Amino acid sequence: MRIMHHAIQKPWRQSPPSPSISIIVVELNPWEELRCFERRPGQNEGGRRTLHVGRQFKPWVPPPQGWLKANFDGAFDSSSRSGGIGIIFRDHESVVVGGYYGRVANVTSPDLVEAYAGRLACEMARELQLFPIVLESDCLNLVKATQSDVEDSAFGMIVEDIKQDMLSLNSSFFSHVFRESNLVEHKLARLALSCSSPHLLLNTLLI
User: Fold this and answer.
1) pTM of the predicted structure, to 2 decimals
2) 155: which residues sit within 8 A by CB, 6+ positions away?
3) Nearest to 67 by CA among 87, 92, 93, 88
4) Would you give per-residue pLDDT tens digits along the chain (207 residues)?
5) Smallest Cα–Cα separation from 75: which of 66, 65, 86?
6) Which value, in Å, is the radius of gyration of the alpha carbons in the chain?
7) Are strands 68-77 and 82-91 parallel, antiparallel or unpaired?
8) What number of helices (H) and strands (E) belong to the chain?
9) 2, containing H or E segment
10) Beta bridge pairs of residue 29
11) CA 110, CA 16: separation in Å to the nearest integer?
12) Secondary structure of 73-124 in the HEC alphabet?
């Protein structure tokens, strides 16, 4: 594993503003570190069942051949008004192509953190040319918002940014999944709450 430090002056867009970030690019060959986030279907870190009553477990499903899939999640800490973002990109063979985890400050709701995560997933897909792509989230409010008109709010302004990004991601779309199919990204988002620096993860065999 090689770690390279890059100072990237790339602020978030105007709505709402966020500080520039210093990214640590982690080159993994293979992505052995992700194994620490894996667990048996339907179990949490302590081995207890995490399935909601009456809901059948559905494992993560790869995208069609020639497509990519980005799963993302956000974690919200109301006491510090901060959020954690976790994103993982995979191909049709379930191979991890890239990812990200990091904190975002001055957020007021879980949905706002999810919107930040979705926007960053779109920006990464566009800049790294990772499309066509399915963008999966367990935040139903965000998925619905990307497919309809939204109110003029911080959340709505980020959703509008997402819609603009989607115009350059040919045939790509958002899809909703339950938490049980989004466990790795959920773990990354929780981890990001305690991180001092964002981490951009690239599989250099594939990018």
Assistant:
1) 0.77
2) 109, 111, 112, 115, 145
3) 92
4) 333 333 333 333 445 544 344 444 444 443 444 544 444 444 444 434 444 555 666 788 999 999 999 999 999 999 999 999 999 999 999 988 889 999 999 999 999 999 999 999 999 999 989 999 999 999 999 999 999 998 889 999 999 999 999 999 999 999 999 988 888 899 999 999 998 888 888 775 554
5) 86
6) 16
7) antiparallel
8) 4, 8
9) strand 2-8
10) none
11) 15
12) EEEEECCCCEEEEEEEEEECCCCEEEEEEEEEECCCCHHHHHHHHHHHHHHH
Report the C-alpha gap between 13 and 5 in whole angstroms. Answer: 23
Token pair in block for residue 153: 């709010």
Instruction: Report which residue type is found at 182.
Output: N
d(CA 84, CA 43): 22
Tell me which DSSP letter residue 43 carries. Answer: B
Residue that is written with structure tokens 């706002």 in the block: 112
Tokens of 169: 């991601």
β-pair partners for 183: none
Site of tokens 């980005």: 70
Distances, alpha carbon 94 to alpha carbons 58, 68, 89, in Å: 15, 9, 9
